Amino acid sequence: MAMLLEDIVRSVELWLNLIKKPQPYVDPSLDPVLLVPGIAGSILKAVDKDNGGKEERVWVRILSADYTCRTKLWSRFDPQTGRSVTLDPKTNIVVPDDRYGLHAIDVLDPDMIIGRDCVYYFHDMIVEMIKWGFQEGKTLFGFGYDFRQSNRLPETLECLAKKLESVYKASGGKKINIISHSMGGLLVKCFMSLHSDIFEKYVKNWIAIAAPFRGAPGFVTSTFLNGMSFVEGWEQNFFISKWSMHQLLIECPSIYELMACPHFHWQHVPVLEIWREKKDNDGNSQIILESYPPEESIQVFKDALSSNTVVYDGEDLPLPFNFDILKWADETQSVLSRAKVPPGVKFYNIYGIDLETPHSVCYGSSEVPVTDLPELQFCEPKYITVNGDGTVPAESAKADGLNAEARVGVPGEHRGILSDHHLFRILKHWLKADSDPFYNPINDYVILPTAFEMERHEENGFQFTSLKEEWEIISEEEDDHDNMVNRKPLVSSICVSQTGDDRSSPAEACATVTVHPHGEGKQHVELNALSVSVDA
Questions:
Q1: Is 533 a catalytic residue?
Q2: What integer pLDDT is reported at residue 308 of this predicted model?
Q3: How far is residue 294 from each of residues 136, 391, 507, measured CA to CA in Å?
Q4: Per-residue pLDDT tens digits for 80-116
Q5: At what angle do helices 323-337 and 184-194 cross, to 10 degrees?
Q6: Is CB count within 10 Å lower at the N or C end of the chain?
Q7: Catalytic pick from 123, 246, 359, 414?
Q8: Which of the following is catalytic: 182, 193, 222, 297?
């Protein structure tokens, strides 16, 4: 009797993108997902070759973190193999593969209790995806790796190839969705460039999140000269010191591969600026501001780190800027530039926005200039910032150089974006973990039903059914409050009729849909409908 009314409601619900089916705890129809982290995003363990293969977690840990970094993780680059080899000859660095690779990229220090969220990596995303119906070992996997190494190191790429094959088999021959974060995007892109046949065989979609496709210029410049901190706040006092991280990263090819791409057409070329005190021919001091683009900055790195040394096992080891690694990294850039998305694979790019992000770096000031370049290691950098995620400029992350299905900017911090519910909503749609064919991640919004009323009565041989339903739309875009308040409601009408036959009676239904604009990106939607049919 009220079929026409139901048709109207169904049409409006489709329009509002409201059709949802309950998500089972385990959804066997989902395609498998492989999570690939970025730099510093994998647990690393040191295996003692002389002590029966005893394992010790060396990254990440809070207790004795600095000492363990210096004794177990410090390394030297071998130009013959392209590997960074740990200084301790008795130690071999491995990545645990527990929980199908997820353990290594979930909580980076599982023993930490207070302030544990500072060592979350993919933790929140894993929890969320399990709610969608993904299952560890069936449709959800992780790939951790030694992030000190080059993104095109043959050993790492061979491990990734084996991982793709094992995930493919474990999921029953389903092609894989790769979700990479940060430098993991460069690793995946290198693999796609060098092993496109394997990539095409096993991969269905690749979603890159916050990938520094053209480098992270401000971040890397200050890392070369001053080191970096993996955690912020009070936890930093118990973690690896910036100096120890500095000495570690100088010998890591992965850091050199994050340098600003010199051949990219930047909107504003990232520079290294230094306030210098110099003497003229007459011996008078002058304060000048020197500016170095990416290629010219290399000479500054060389001079600033010319006397950099560490003491290891009682021996002074020189750790200057490494030109062998730079040469290796230049070839990596060539590999990345040749990458193409294979036929049948879809690529999506999500990048962080709305945070001040280091782009160019300045040392010294007109009042306190730099006299000698080795002083830079002890100077506090000042940043010239651009839009991005706090680490990678949006300009770099967007410039993937690939044929992308979509590129979407999400407000969020570089690592914090992995816990962002806006990101989760986009991933859920692209992974087809929802039943929402009309959701558009680029024009993101959420719809909440708020009221539903239905009444029926008969009068003079006619049956009347009235319905009222309301929804609230919450959009990511926040319009100006005054403009929204002053804007008139939008009213639309829908009418549907049905002619009678032997099996049904004549009927007609009419409805009005009213959209009331509110402030703060909200809209209120009302549906009022009435159907009339001849009482059979």
A1: no
A2: 94
A3: 43, 17, 74
A4: 999 999 999 999 999 999 999 999 999 998 887 777 7
A5: 70
A6: C
A7: 414
A8: 182
